[in-house]
Write a structure and sequence with these properties.
Length: 272
């Protein structure tokens, strides 16, 4: 599939911001089943984008602004060619040991309820892939997708108790449950387009990957109840949302910040 992505992030400040620093995890890497045809990041203020990579292999761009700014806009636009891999993810930049992905974080720490929930899916035959598929479908059926009940600081335990959340919350619950069973798992941020055309939203997408012995990393999207397909563009990886957040930063001044995000993804072949 050839996917076009356009992602705009716009800040408006009631009073001018005097100093801004931002870190962007907005640039995908090529790997098996994902080839970056073209990709660009534009900032509407005069600055220099510095490119590095973090411990997870994510491409990180950073910039600083000094002056007085009433607004700031960041545009990401590009094309990605993807192929169906049945959810298996190979050829990625792997710099860390698998054991690291068993580490709990504040957002993914399992409580007793999540641990008990995860144990329900343990199979007598020890088939971990089937176990995670069962949990994937069950989470999708029993957690309600709801943009009004949680925020970026909601923990897996809180979202599980609410039985409501967005793709970030579904992913955190899945990761917490998988790790409680001794399976390395991680958070993935990126984009999703449907096979039949165009999607527009106020955010990117998120899902999880779990490591299966003798198979490797497999992508699971519990908010949609499926393993990842060629409609997914994988951008950033972390232990949780904070490690893969597309934009993180801080500023001096700039009170009453108004943030607007617009993400447009398109299956170019379907449109043609």
């Amino acid at each position: 599939m050839r996917i076009h992505v356009r992602h705009e992030t716009a800040y408006h400040y009631a009073s001018p911001a005097k100093y801004i620093i931002q870190k962007l995890r907005l640039s995908p890497r090529s790997h098996d089943g994902q080839h970056i045809r073209r990709w660009r990041i534009e900032v509407d203020q005069d600055c220099r984008l510095m490119e590095t990579s973090d411990a997870f292999g994510n491409i990180v761009h950073s910039f600083t602004l000094m002056g007085a700014f009433d607004s700031l806009s960041i545009l990401v636009e590009g094309e990605v060619e993807t192929e169906e891999t049945s959810g298996v993810v190979r050829g990625t930049a792997e710099r860390l040991p698998l054991e690291l992905y068993l580490r709990e974080t504040d957002l993914t720490e399992p409580n007793a309820d999540i641990e008990a929930y995860a144990r329900k899916f343990v199979r007598d035959d020890g088939n971990r892939l089937s176990m995670l598929h069962d949990m994937l479908v069950d989470l999708h059926e029993h957690i309600t997708f709801d943009t009004n009940r949680t925020d970026s600081g909601t923990t897996a335990a809180d979202a599980f108790a609410l039985k409501h959340g967005v793709c970030q919350d579904f992913s955190h619950i899945f990761i917490a449950a998988a790790r409680s069973l001794g399976l390395p798992a991680r958070y993935i941020g990126g984009y999703l387009v449907q096979q039949n055309g165009v999607a527009t939203s106020e955010a990117g997408h998120a899902w999880a990957e779990a490591h299966i012995p003798d198979l490797g990393w497999v992508g699971f999207d519990p908010s949609n109840g499926v393993c990842i397909t060629d409609g997914y563009v994988r951008v950033a990886v972390g232990l949780d949302y904070l490690g893969a957040a597309p934009v993180r930063g801080s500023q001096v001044g700039g009170q009453s910040e108004d943030l607007k995000v617009a993400v447009h993804t398109e299956n170019m072949a379907a449109q043609q």
